[in-house]
UniProtKB/TrEMBL annotation:
Name used for this protein in its record: Glycosyltransferase
Lineage of origin: Bacteria, Pseudomonadati, Bacteroidota, Flavobacteriia, Flavobacteriales
GO terms of biological process kind: lipopolysaccharide biosynthetic process
Keyword Transferase: yes
Coiled-coil regions listed in the entry: none
Gene Ontology MF term list: glycosyltransferase activity
Amino acid sequence: MILIDALFINNGGGKVLLDYLIEEIEKKRLKVHYLLDDRIKNTIPEISICNKVSFLQGNIFKRHHFYKVHKNDFSKVLCFANLPPTIRLNTEVYTYFHQLIYINIPTEFSFLDQVKFRLKRIILKIFAKNTNFWIVQSNLTKNKFGLKFSFNENLIKVLPFYPHFSSLNVVSIKNKNSYLYVSNANPHKNHTRLINAFCVFYEKYKIGQLILTVNKYFPEVLALIDLKQKSGYPIKNIGFVNREELEKEYQKSEFLIFPSLTESFGLGLIEGIECGCKIIAADLPYTYAVCEPSVVFDPLKEESIFKAFETSLNYYTNLSTPKINNKINELINILENSQCN
């Protein structure tokens, strides 16, 4: 039996990838035990009655107890949230690393959040010996991760995977000068600079709409959005929506704008390209690792973001192109091939 350990995944892009992974595993009818966060109990894809699911609190001590109880139960293990098992297992273990914040902690984080990630970094180093291989989404992450933690690059596999939308038939008519940013609003996601720059852009040109996906867990950003809306700026916040509604927003939007200060992948960049959006993105390595954008900007400078909005008004702005391919089948093969009968 294979263990898929995703105990610390409960929202955002990680949850999107987890749902996709579960769906693909279930299609293959593999014999699997899922270890999942109890907060997603009612929001996971359908799982076969032949497979097992354990829901626990996202707690490292409860996770450790689980491994002690089940240490001899699995033919292979995939840890899907950066952290290897807390004990050494007598089986092959893969750990999916998808959080560059462990490597470069944004200065925008509060002091408490910076301390938390430093502690998480220490914990990762302690348990690193308990995994056989690491899986990452890009060569950029592979290089940074290997250098930061002095890991053998031969033990780091680059296997990007991501779900396609149900329909990739891009609509021919998009809302002119519409700018979509699909992201939660953690500090490194850079919403404040984006919103301020868009408002300056709108004041000058009186055109455009900014569409955001900020949920209730970010009250400060929601308050800023509300303030700008009441001041007459065309900012639309759709909050957290299902994949079907999100696809519609991508299909309608002319541009996908992505000002994040750090990403291990940037799922929105790929989704935007697949839905026919031109990409306006931060002039940072993570952008070029996954796509060739249409327009870039310095994400630390509101003036640069404003100028990117200006540049987007050029009718001849180039289309964006992807640089990666979906390797979900390769990942599933890794899990499947050494499965014991």
